[in-house]
Write a structure and sequence with these properties.
Elements (H helix, E strand, L loop, with lengths): L6 H26 L16 E4 L4 E4 L7 E2 L16 E6 L7 H11 L3 E2 L3 E2 L8 E4 L4 H11 L6 E3 L14 E5 L3 H5 L2
Parallel strand pairs: 4-5, 4-6, 4-9, 7-8
Antiparallel strand pairs: 1-2, 2-3, 7-9
Length: 184
């Protein structure tokens, strides 16, 4: 038979149970909250949904994938001189180390003005190329310079992917499928 527990031991056990319950509740709430690096996610991460705004259609997906935005800049915009195009590379590929700097170097060699590489706090499944208004042709040129054959070029979401992306004309988000995109 075990000896009765002292009041301090009982309080410690109760405290541990309360902390554990609070962590579980917090995780549950966070998994259902809006936010993440790409804006809002539907509760529970259910499939994509489409939201219509005055001039553009935005498709929002769970934060584990890159969002799609099919509206925005006209398809006829002309490419700028690469020296005038600010590009940011965001590594959101989890454990794939060094791909941000590798791609940044390729873009620098192609003549683009490359902002410092950033690592995302949140991983994404799909690699994506995004452009701000007037820079669609430049995003296509970035895609060619990186050799990203099947990666779609899309208008940037209204909410910046990361705060530093607001300073860029073209945003390259490297996802977990990076090796499939590059054939590596």
């Amino acid at each position: 038979m075990t000896a009765p527990r002292r009041p301090s031991e009982q309080a410690t056990i109760r405290g541990a149970i309360v902390v554990f319950a609070a962590v579980l509740i917090g995780v549950a709430l966070l998994s259902r909250s809006d936010g993440g690096i790409f804006g809002s996610a539907e509760a529970g991460g259910a499939g994509p949904t489409t939201t219509t705004q005055t001039t553009r259609t935005t498709t929002t997906v769970p934060t584990s994938t890159v969002p799609t935005n099919t509206g925005g800049a006209a398809a006829t915009d002309k490419a700028h001189d690469p020296k005038q195009v600010k590009v940011i590379v965001v590594n959101a590929a989890g454990g794939i180390v060094g791909i941000g700097s590798d791609n940044s170097q390729k873009l620098t060699q192609a003549g683009f003005q490359v902002l410092p590489v950033k690592n995302s706090d949140q991983d994404v499944d799909a690699t994506g190329l995004f452009f701000n208004e007037g820079f669609q042709a430049d995003a296509t040129a970035v895609k060619a310079a990186l050799g990203f054959g099947n990666v779609p070029v899309q208008a940037a979401p209204a909410q910046a992917i990361i705060p530093e992306a607001a300073d860029a004309n073209v945003i390259v988000v490297l996802g977990k499928n990076y090796n499939d995109v590059t054939g590596g």
